[in-house]
Amino acid sequence: MIYELETTAYEKARPLFQEMGHSQLFTDAIFEGNHVGRIFVDDPEYPAAALIAPMCEFFFTVGRTDNTVFNQAMRALILSELVSPEGDLLLFPTSKAWQQTLNRLFADYARLHVARKAFTFQPAAFAERHTGWRERLPEGYAIRQYDHALAEGTELANFWGNLDNFLARGVGFAVMKGDEIISRCHSVMVGGGQAEISIETAEAYRRQGFATLAACAFVEGCAERGLRPAWSCWDNNIPSQILAQKLGFNHPVDVPAIYTKVK
User: At what angle are helices 238-246 and 210-224 packed, to 10 degrees?
Assistant: First the structure.
């Protein structure tokens, strides 16, 4: 059997996620109400295994791996209800045992073992390279903190539940040229005192330093809120890794994942 927990019962499953070894921000964000997600367990009162499904469509499994009934029910739920409309499925095993279990559960689909690079922010490196960064802002451009108007048209309302929740707890800045958004950087989720970065630059303005300026504003905004910026990206996203290191994010750790397409 598999049971979905009501939000008021999330704390029953939280101990299972506190020693994940990676991606703690993603699960903490759900427990803290800073990201929309669902939690499924093998026992609603005393869970020993759990699946957490954030809105960002990353799936994390924790706890016991030997509950065949739960595992099969979890597979059926993912395939029938949780997988993306395109059929892309990203599973993040939190142990070698879970990696083996997930490989067996989805053995009838072609699987690709991939990894995300999770970086550690080093404030001293950022300060050394980017103190006075506002002086690099070209004439005619401005840094603007997110309000409702700037946050609209992004994924933030879906990820955070609503824009008011994001504006109260999240961080977002944009490089503007008049009313045109040149580059934007915002927190897709906040958890455990960390803010996961999402950054995007209009195609015509890429490779001109605007993403760096937006990220600098974001980093300073995090500091003002007592948050630590967090950066992760897929291991084949070399431009993102280069920008991360330029900003003072270093010591990347590989977070293993299993990718499969089920439609």
Answer: 60
Phi-psi region of 161 (alpha: psi -120 to 50; beta: other; left: phi over 0): left
Residue 263 has pLDDT above 90, yes or no: no
Domains of the chain: 3-109 (3.40.630), 119-252 (3.40.630.30)
Task: Check whether 133 has a pLDDT greater than 90.
Answer: yes
Residue/partner pairs of 199-205 with CB below 8 Å, 24 or more apart = 199/243
| 40 φ, ψ (degrees, to nearest 5) | -125, 140
Q: Where are the alpha helices (DSSP H) in the chain?
A: 14-17, 24-31, 68-77, 96-105, 123-130, 148-151, 156-160, 163-169, 210-224, 238-246
For the stretch 208-245, pLDDT in tens is 999 999 999 999 999 999 999 999 999 999 999 999 99
- Taking the C-alpha atoms of residue 119 and residue 251, their distance in angstroms, rounded to an integer, is 6
138 pLDDT more than 80: yes
What is the Cα–Cα distance from 14 to 7, expressed in whole angstroms?
A: 12
Local structure of residue 18 (DSSP, 8 states): T
Q: Is the pLDDT of residue 261 over 80?
A: yes
3-state DSSP helix/strand/coil % of the chain, to nearest 5: 35, 35, 30
Largest CA distance in the chain: 63
Q: Kindly report the pTM of this predicted structure.
A: 0.92
35-46 mean pLDDT: 97
Task: List beta partners, residue 123.
Answer: none
- Phi and psi at 17, nearest 5°, equal -100, 0
Instruction: Work out the number of other CB atoms within 10 angstroms of the CB of residue 152.
Output: 11
